[in-house]
Write a structure and sequence with these properties.
Layout: H1 4-12, H2 36-45, E1 47-48, E2 57-59, E3 67-73, E4 76-81, E5 87-93, E6 98-99, E7 112-115, E8 120-125, H3 126-135, H4 137-163, H5 166-183, E9 190-192, H6 197-204, H7 208-220, E10 224-227, E11 230-233, H8 236-242
Antiparallel strand pairs: 1-8, 2-7, 3-6, 3-8, 4-5, 4-7, 9-11, 10-11
Helix pairs in contact: 3-4, 5-8, 6-7
Protein name: Fumarate and nitrate reduction regulatory protein
Cofactor: [4Fe-4S] cluster
Organism: Xenorhabdus bovienii str. feltiae Moldova
């Protein structure tokens, strides 16, 4: 039987909001490890925003830290603007990812977060979340786990850019997208790239021409099937080998 207070919350939110208890990607997000009572407390502070359209921003560099954002669906890219005025992409975030961690140190966002497609997010007021985590060890532990994942991903990205050649970088990028889609219950072998080849090149430190040439090479060698933005992994073993067999986070 569904608790009455949960029914009331659903009615108040219009009857269409998906709550933490029912979310299919909760195992990747903050609710993981929380018991039902803790989930209810977390659920009560979350604001489920309207769809964010392609090109819209969640926050901009310089904005005060007010909330963290858990992606329910869609893709968000994070980026900074260099002193020369150029965009530098720092991450691609999928459903289940949390964005905004890098603002905690100075209580100000150092980067931008922009939707690459129509996306849904849960807005989580940071001060309230911080207070709640002080009372709930499971929540605090999960927050630390998620932040540790961010640090690990940054370290792996440094390794990717400093030690891998162009072919290995792109292979690692495709391989890890495949792995992340699998974690979310989607096909690891067939998926659509929501980012442009220019975005991928920017992120990996490669030119658009290099990305296009490498995709063509992967297709010729029977590793990938490429049709526009659609990717089919035809030889996972070769892709994994080319990627160095070491997962490199792309969030």
């Amino acid at each position: 039987m569904i608790p009455e207070k949960r029914i009331i919350r659903r009615i108040q939110s219009g009857g269409c909001a998906i709550h933490c208890q029912d979310c299919s990607i909760s195992q990747l997000c903050i609710p993981f490890t929380l018991n039902e009572h803790e989930l209810d407390q977390l659920d009560n502070i979350i604001e489920r925003k309207k769809p964010i359209q392609k090109g819209q921003t969640l926050f901009k560099a310089g904005d005060a830290l007010k909330s963290l954002y858990a992606i329910r669906s869609g893709t968000i890219k994070s980026y900074t603007i260099t002193e020369e005025g150029d965009e530098q992409i720092t991450g691609f975030h999928l459903a289940g990812d949390l964005v905004g961690f890098d603002a905690i140190i100075n209580t100000e966002h150092p980067s931008f977060a922009q939707a690459l497609e129509t996306s849904m997010v849960c807005e989580i007021p940071f001060e309230t979340l911080d207070d709640l985590s002080g009372k709930m060890p499971n929540l605090r532990q999960q927050m630390m786990r998620l932040m540790s994942g961010e640090i690990k991903g940054d370290q792996e990205m440094i390794l990717l850019l400093s030690k891998k050649n162009a072919e290995e970088r792109l292979a690692a990028f495709i391989y890890n997208l495949s792995r992340r889609f699998a974690q979310r219950g989607f096909s690891p072998r067939e998926f659509r790239l929501t980012m442009t080849r220019g975005d991928i090149g920017n992120y990996l430190g490669l030119t658009v021409e290099t990305i296009s040439r490498l995709l063509g090479r992967f297709q010729k060698n029977g590793i990938l099937g490429v049709k526009g933005k659609y990717i089919a992994v035809e030889n996972m073993e070769k892709l994994t080998e080319l990627a160095g067999k070491a997962p490199v986070c792309v969030s």
